[in-house]
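ok so for the tutorial part 2 we go from a plain amino acid sequence to predicted structure tokens. step 1 is just haveing the sequence, like this:
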Amino acid sequence: MIQRWKTRVGWLMLVWGRRGCLLLAGGAVLACAVSGTEALFAYVFSRLLFRLGYEKFAVSVPTGLSAVALSPAAAIMVLVVLGLVRSAVRIMASQWHAYSQERMLARLRFVFFGRLLDTDTPRFSQTEVNTYFSELFPKATGFSTSLATCTNTGARAFLFLALLLYTSPVKATVGCGAILLLAPLLRWMNLRSQALAAGTVRDFKWVQRSIVRASRNWLLVRIYRTEADELRQLQETSLATTNKALRVMLMTGTAGNIPEAAGVLVISAMLWVQFYVDPQPGNMLLVFLFMYMRLVQTLSQLSATICQMYSCMPHFDVAGAFLEAVPRDQARKSFEPVFHLSLLGSLATPKSLRRTPANRPPVQADSQADPPDIRVEGLSFSYPDDAKPVFHGLSVSVPAGGDLGIVGRSGAGKSTLLALLLGFLQPSQGGLWVGGKTAKDQRLSGNLRTGYVGPEPFMVAGSLRDNLLYGASCSPPEDDLLSALQEAGFLEERATLRKMLGLRISEDGEGLSTGQKQRLGLARALLMRPQLLVLDEVSANLDIETEAHIAKTVTGLAGRTTVIIVSHRKGMLAHCSRILNLDAVEVQ
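step 2 — the prediction. this is what the tokens look like for a chain of 588 residues:
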């Protein structure tokens, strides 16, 4: 257990950073300031009550305040000032708490953004993205925030305890001893919350995976009439997750209210001590009871926060394991934008994060701009968690400006081979060279203009022109845009296409048909005059006529662009001079 907590502290130090630790210390100071202000408020208020009509009762003055003599008017003014100071400090403490929470959540998100777009990181599934952002990161932040709140609340409780011991050691010992008897029960509730929360992590991920699967395969589900089965599974798991969450909330609420309920009984015991064991002046008894009730409330908050912290601990452990896999330099670089966060919340976008073409690195093209040749010799590859190789001893060559069609059943390794050719995966054995360099070195050099069109059209919210220029380092002439559209299969007149450049579309391409979206992706790739063009199932959603037009366009690239085509349709492969069949691992 100790080693596990050391690991968690290491993760917290990474996410918090130096500024986060200073925020934690500042929050504890503000918490103590609130408690001190409340204690002073209670004392002045009790003095005022007894001055207003209860002078016949004994009034005691604590050491250190005996020299302060306040008239009723002055006491009222002091109460007003203390009330305003207390409110101001509480507002600052609340904002401090919110800032710390949002700062950590932002740091976790920015690390994930960096990993999501890192070229050397394996692809995240939609389920993983949803789980991290909707469940794990918020709950991991909740663990950190609860731990910080425990520190602040513990500091307040310690200050109240010190004041109680100073005011009446006997009553303070009786009261606090009674509260400590509840510790074993609260400990059991915390561990129970942790166990229940661990189950919600698994259930939530399963629900997310089922939702993504059902939404992507909605037509198949309807054809096979399995809607009722899918719905029943979703309802069952979602209901189990919700029930566990409700049980955790019950544990948290109960843990927060048990000390307060016990405090009422303890106050009765304290009154018995006041009458028969440790009598005190009336105003000091009033101050003691006020501070004791505040201590009980603080302990109730502390108990509920600890229970909440335990319920978020499994989520933090998963998020911590994610952080552990991130190189420290990359993590610290991802944290840099968080420095722009303001305690009071700034509405201005930092200059370094504004989306302008100047922020985009320009494409470094070779002066000759020749298409690359591709040479694969004895290529073998297997994923780290899979002992079975995807392929073994693969060899193929493509001359500069030539083409290669890749076919194979689902799971044969087509996407893996593309990732190797583009330098995003490294061979287990053998070699792979693009333009005389290894695929990885070629990618890192940035000297090869590469166009890519995938099976799912990639759109951005904006105009059709914005989508064409996505990834471009400069804005080419409008005639080049129109030519790229026509080459990709937009058969309208140029005047019509010119008007279409201003057409507004959403990220899901609303306003365009599936075929138009795919052709737009091809036009984007052709616009950059690529030296290497990769078409991955580009004609999957196109009609035969449009497919034939695109195949003719691709054929016209011979000699000036090296083309790699992955397709199941013969129309796209008809003009390929060589075809690699991964099922038989042979070149035809």
